[in-house]
Model the fold of this input.
Amino acid sequence: MSWQQNYQVYGGLCLFVILSVIAYLIYSQYQLKHHQSQKEKELKEALSKIEIQNKQQEQRLKISKDLHHTIGAQFTSIISSLDHLKYAYAIKDERLKEKLNTISSFTSQASYELRDAIWAMTKTEITILDLRARILNYLDFLKLKHTNIQLLFKVSTDVDTSINFSMLKGFTIYNVIQESIQHSLTYEEVSMVKVTVRTMVSNMVFKISNNGTGSSTSTKIIGNGHNAMEKRIQSIGGELEFTSLENASNEIIITI
Done:
């Protein structure tokens, strides 16, 4: 092979190597720009989501404040007016007295439930400690009316108190617990209602139990309410179990 042919071969190889390096550099630059573009897009999407969440939180806070200042104030005014009627006038009609007491009790309960809704609206997440504080607060509220009934609450030591629920899930759990307690107090002859929270495998278990009689009448009434509560718990990915025996305690078990 002549030196000219060798020169052409070596020249072709060098040119191929140079073109390959240039192509690699161009491709690497393209890949880098594409990667940067993807990162910028992801960052913009994340910032947009944060901005939307912040706006939603601001709207929730505004609505909660409006509810507190308008409807909350109206409830307070109604309760105050009813109390004034009961104590400022010598009402002799027992049926009227009973009616006023019923309206007052209903309004107090509605006012408390409004505060619960406002509490949930101000949260983006609800922790076990948030639920604990709210349930204890509710039990204190009930103790004012049910002075002869033990109302207990316990969180087991195996529960991870750092666990967070979404606002909807946390409020649904609290609301169903609240309704379960109310059922026990309304339809059962009880001297004790207890709420316990514990961990079972990877699940969180909330149990509402009482020492009622488990009568067929109360079982039927609670059973009707149980269906609605069960659907609400299922809507957040949980399960609800209700047990009631003749002359035995009732239990509602929520598993999340």
The chain has six helices and seven strands. The chain has a mean pLDDT of 79.
